[in-house]
UniProtKB/TrEMBL annotation:
Extent of the signal sequence: 1-21
Keywords: Cuticle, Signal
Region span, Disordered: 27-78
Protein name per Swiss-Prot or TrEMBL: Pro-resilin-like 20
Any one GO cellular component localisation term in the record: extracellular space
Taxonomic placement: Eukaryota, Metazoa, Ecdysozoa, Arthropoda, Crustacea
InterPro entries: Insect_cuticle, Insect_Cuticle_Struc_Prot
């Protein structure tokens, strides 16, 4: 049997290792704390648009919200040449109500045009 200061140090290190291994991190989860600032009803208004002739990109979005009432529209230039516009509203719990309209007539290239089509190069800044 080992005796003396080496045994005592070895025994002490063993006890410390067991105590350190028994310490597990503890986590607790709770409900979010209430903010001290009062927040009012949701209200906002935004509008943005892109119209780039070189890439033929034409799209945009606008929306307004007052509490539970939201109204807006968005549009996009489709590959077939038409402009698609979606006008929508949400009135409380009524759900999303949309009206979709198209402006223009769909154009499809001849098969020879499709083979020779080279998409425009886009530059990202």
């Amino acid at each position: 049997m080992i005796q003396g200061p080496c045994f005592q140090i070895l025994l002490l290190l063993g006890v410390v290792a067991v105590a350190a291994a028994d310490r597990r991190p503890s986590f607790s989860y709770s409900a979010p704390r209430a903010s001290s600032e009062e927040s009012g009803p949701a209200q906002y208004n935004f509008n943005w648009a892109v119209n780039d002739d070189s890439s033929e990109n034409d799209f945009g979005h606008q929306e307004t919200r007052d509490n539970d009432n939201t109204k807006g529209s968005y549009s996009v230039q489709l590959p077939d040449g038409r402009l698609q516009t979606v006008t929508y509203y949400v009135d409380g719990d009524s759900g999303y109500i949309a009206d979709v309209k198209y402006v223009g007539e769909a154009r499809y290239p001849d098969s020879d045009e499709v083979r020779s089509y080279t998409p425009p190069r886009r530059q990202y800044n």
